[in-house]
Amino acid sequence: MIGKLVNFFGDKKYTTIRWRLLIVILIIIIIADFMVDRPYIHNFWDAIPGWGALFGFFACALIIFVSKFIGKKGGLMKKEDFYD
After folding, report:
1. Strand runs (DSSP E) across 1-84, as ranges?
2. Other CB atoms closer than 10 Å to residue 31's CB: what's the count?
C-alpha cells in the first residue's frame, strides 16, 4: 500500500493525474466554503467565498519559494558532499 502511494507521488508518469487531483480538491474546498455560514464578519475579505483556501494556498507557496530562495541565495544550503 505504501509502495503504491510512494510511486504515485514520485513517478513522473502520474504528473497529469496529480495535477487534476489537486485541482479537483481545490474546487471542492472552494465549493464547500460557499456553504459555510458567516455570522461574524470582521473584515471585508472574510465575506469572500474561497478566501481562506486561496490565502492558505498562496501563503504556503510563498513560504516554500522564500525558503528555497534563502537556502540557495543566502548560502544556507550546502552540496551533498560538503562534509567529505
Report:
1. none
2. 12
Find out whether 84 and 76 touch, Cβ atoms under 8 Å: no
Q: Who contacts 58 (Cβ-Cβ below 8 Å, separation ≥6)?
A: none
Judged by DSSP in three states, 25 sits in helix
pLDDT digits (tens, 9 = 90+) for 48-79: 877 887 888 899 999 999 998 888 887 777 77
Q: Where are the domains of the chain?
A: 2-38+47-73
* Residues contacting residue 54 through CB under 8 Å, at least 6 positions apart: 30
Please state, as a whole number, how many other Cβ atoms lie within 10 Å of the Cβ of residue 13: 8
Question: Taking the model in full, what pTM does it have?
Answer: 0.56
